[in-house]
C-alpha cells in the first residue's frame, strides 16, 4: 500500500472495493478525483480484491492521490475491512466500484450530520441512477424524505469509523450480500440511529459484471437464514426461514442453480450460530425486514399491486 502524506488529518475517508471491473473503477476514480482536488478533509482508499483484468495495474498509476491496498485473492466483502482499518477519517463513506457521490454537497451533509448528531451512527444515502431517478429498494424509507431508516444500501452510506470498528466491521463470513443488514442490526443494538438523507446522493451505475446467477441464489439464501437464526426467536424464526427457503428455491429454479441452493441451505443450517435474540423493541424497528422475508406478506403485496 502507498500512503499519500497530508498536512491535515482527513475528516472523511472514502473507501471502495474493486474486483475485475476496470472500466467502472476508472470511472469512479474520475468522479472522485475532482472532489479530492478541491478538498483537504477527505482521503480516497481503493482495495483491489485480486483483480486479473488490469485493475491492479491501473491503480498503481493512481497512488499519487489514492491509497491503494492490494489483496492477493478475492475475499469478498472482507476486502473492505482492510481499507476500513487503514482509514484515517472520523467517518467512512462506503462505495462500490460502480458508484460515486453526485457532488460536494453530499460530502458536506454527511460530515455535518455526523458532527452535530451524536446519536446518529449511519447516514444512509439516496441511491439513484445516472439519470437521477431513485433506485427502488426496501432498504430505504418510502416516501423519499429525510428520516430514520431501518437499514442502508452498501454502495452508498457513511458510518462513524469508531462505531464500525466496535461492531466488528463487515462480517467476513458473509462474503457477499446481506452484510448491510447484519451491520444495521449491530448498529441498532448499540443504540445508534440510522438516518436517511435524500440530499446525500450517490449514483449507482449498476454494472452487471460479476453478478452471476449462482451468487444471487447462494449468498442471499444462506446469509439471510444466518441472520434469522441469530436474532429472532421461535416461532418467528421458523416462519421467516420457511419463507426464505421458498424465495431461494424460486430463484434457484428460475436460474437453474439448484446445486447452489442445496449448498446454501446445508451451510445455512449446519454452520454454528451464537443466538443474540433481539428485544421486542428492536424487532419492531426491523418490521420491513420481517415483511420482506414473509412469504404471506409478499403474496398479499403482489395481489394488492395487481388489483390496484
From TrEMBL:
GO terms for molecular function: glycosyltransferase activity. It holds the Pfam family Glycos_transf_2. Residues 13-166 form the Glycosyltransferase 2-like domain. The keyword Glycosyltransferase applies. Coiled coil: none annotated. It comes from the Bacteria. Keywords: Glycosyltransferase, Transferase. Belongs to the glycosyltransferase 2 family. This is Glycosyltransferase. It comes from Thioploca ingrica.
Amino acid at each position: 500500500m502507498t500512503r499519500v502524506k497530508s498536512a491535515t488529518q482527513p475528516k472523511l475517508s472514502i473507501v471502495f472495493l474493486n474486483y475485475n471491473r476496470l472500466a467502472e473503477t476508472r470511472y469512479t476514480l474520475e468522479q472522485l478525483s475532482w472532489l479530492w482536488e478541491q478538498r483537504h478533509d477527505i482521503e480516497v482508499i481503493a482495495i483491489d480484491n485480486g483483480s486479473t483484468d488490469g485493475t491492479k495495474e491501473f491503480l498503481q498509476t493512481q497512488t499519487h492521490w489514492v491509497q491503494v491496498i492490494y489483496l492477493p485473492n478475492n475475499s469478498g466483502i472482507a476486502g473492505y475491512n482492510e481499507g476500513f482499518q487503514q482509514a484515517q477519517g472520523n467517518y467512512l463513506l462506503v462505495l462500490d466500484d460502480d458508484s460515486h457521490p453526485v457532488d460536494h454537497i453530499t460530502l458536506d451533509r454527511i460530515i455535518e450530520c455526523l458532527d452535530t448528531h451524536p446519536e446518529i451512527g449511519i447516514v444512509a444515502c439516496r441511491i439513484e441512477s445516472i439519470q437521477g431517478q431513485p433506485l427502488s429498494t426496501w432498504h430505504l424509507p418510502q416516501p423519499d424524505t429525510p428520516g430514520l431508516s431501518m437499514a442502508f444500501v452498501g454502495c452508498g452510506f457513511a458510518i462513524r469509523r469508531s462505531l464500525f470498528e466496535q461492531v466488528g466491521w463487515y462480517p467476513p463470513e458473509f462474503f457477499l450480500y446481506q452484510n448491510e443488514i447484519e451491520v444495521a442490526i449491530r448498529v441498532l443494538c448499540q443504540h445508534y440511529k440510522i438516518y436517511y438523507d435524500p440530499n446525500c446522493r450517490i449514483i449507482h451505475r449498476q454494472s452487471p459484471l460479476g453478478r452471476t446467477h449462482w451468487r444471487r441464489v447462494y449468498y442471499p439464501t444462506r446469509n439471510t437464514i444466518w441472520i434469522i437464526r441469530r436474532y429472532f426467536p421461535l416461532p418467528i424464526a421458523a416462519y421467516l426461514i420457511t419463507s426464505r427457503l421458498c424465495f431461494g428455491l424460486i430463484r434457484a429454479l428460475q436460474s437453474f442453480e439448484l446445486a447452489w441452493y442445496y449448498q446454501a441451505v446445508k451451510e445455512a443450517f449446519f454452520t454454528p450460530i451464537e443466538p443474540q435474540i433481539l428485544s421486542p423493541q428492536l424487532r419492531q424497528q426491523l418490521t420491513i425486514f420481517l415483511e420482506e422475508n414473509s412469504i404471506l406478506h409478499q403474496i398479499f403485496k403482489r395481489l394488492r399491486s395487481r388489483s390496484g
